[in-house]
Hints:
2 domains, Arc Repressor Mutant, subunit A, alpha+beta, two-stranded antiparallel ribbon
Amino acid sequence: GQVQRYRLAGDADLTEQQLHDWLPDAAQWLALNDPATGHFRRAALDSEGRLLAWLAIGDALPLCDVEWLANCFADEADTPHLALLAGQPVDAGPDLGPVICSCFQVREKTIQAAVEEGADSVEAIGKGCQAGTNCGSCIPELRGLLESCSV
């Protein structure tokens, strides 16, 4: 199946009723609220427990495994609810930090490892792990990581 991803910005409050109206086919909504960090997540499931929609609301992009989530839409209904809300599998492995390069889903520790292995410029990081080689919006963060790792 095909998965569509959207990244929206705004400051309007979204009510639970608006979510339910937006996706009336959802038989069940899972919710995770963390007001301390400003992160709110919702997962909509169909009547058989399959993922219909996943939504994260917050001031910053959430840590999640976008590719894994995309695969959850095609999977059977046995994905643990907590994993769905977390946006990553239960056995996700080590925390690689936040996604720095959205285009290629490259995480902070992967970039740090590239710098430690000798990448001494944004271009060298790109050759090592693709970060910064598409839209370029992460280049300022890559420069910051270069400076902090070089100290």
